[in-house]
Design a protein that fits this description.
By secondary structure, this protein is an alpha/beta fold. It has a single domain, classed as Sugar-phosphate isomerase, RpiB/LacA/LacB (Ribose 5-phosphate Isomerase B, Chain: A, 3-Layer(aba) Sandwich), CATH 3.40.1400.10. Helix content is 45%, strand content 17%. Helix 4 links the parallel strand 4 and strand 5. Helix 1 packs across helix 5 and helix 4 packs parallel to helix 5. It is globular, with a radius of gyration of 14 Å.
C-alpha cells in the first residue's frame, strides 16, 4: 500500500533522510520533505512543527523524523495531541510502536543506527498494522492531558 509520507529532521539526519526518501519513492509512496535541505546546522523544531501539523491535519498518513539522537524530534512532535511519535533504534521497536501504540511518526537516531537498520525500520513501520483491541483503550488515554 502506498502512503503519503512526511519526512524531516535536522542536519544530523540529512544524509539518512535522503536515503529514506529514495526508498520511499521506489515503494510508490508520495513523500513531502519538510527539510532541512542541506547538512548545515539547523534548529530541528523549525522542521518538526510543520511536519507534525501535516499529520494532525491529515495531509500525511505517516511521518518520519531523523536527527542525531532522535530525542529532540520525538519530544517536539509529541507536543501535538494527535501525534504518537516513537523513537526507535531497532526494527522490533518500530513494529511494536505500530502494533501496540498506533504510532504515526517514526523517529530515527541517525548517530546510533546504520543506514540498513534505518531502512529496515521504515519498511517495518509502514507495513505493520495497529492491533487495536486491548491496545486501543491505552492509546485513547495517551492524549488525556
Amino acid at each position: 500500500m502506498a502512503y503519503k509520507i512526511a519526512i524531516g529532521g535536522d542536519h544530523a539526519g540529512f544524509t539518512y533522510k535522503n536515503l529514506i526518501k529514495e526508498i520511499l519513492a521506489e515503494g510508490g509512496h508520495d513523500v513531502k520533505d519538510f527539510g532541512p535541505f542541506s547538512d548545515a546546522s539547523v534548529d530541528y523544531p523549525d522542521h518538526v512543527h510543520p511536519l507534525a501539523k501535516s499529520i494532525v491535519n491529515k495531509e500525511a498518513d505517516f511521518g518520519i523524523l531523523i536527527c542525531g539522537s532522535g530525542n529532540g524530534v520525538a519530544m517536539t512532535a509529541n507536543k501535538y495531541k494527535e501525534v504518537r511519535a516513537a523513537l526507535c533504534w531497532k526494527p522490533e521497536l518500530a513494529k511494536l510502536a505500530r502494533e501496540h501504540n498506533d504510532a504515526n511518526i517514526l523517529c530515527i537516531p541517525a548517530r546510533f543506527v546504520s543506514e540498513e537498520e534505518a531502512a529496515e525500520m521504515v519498511k517495518v513501520f509502514l507495513t505493520t498494522a495497529f492491533e487495536g483491541g486491548r491496545h486501543q483503550n491505552r492509546v485513547d488515554k495517551i492524549a488525556d492531558c
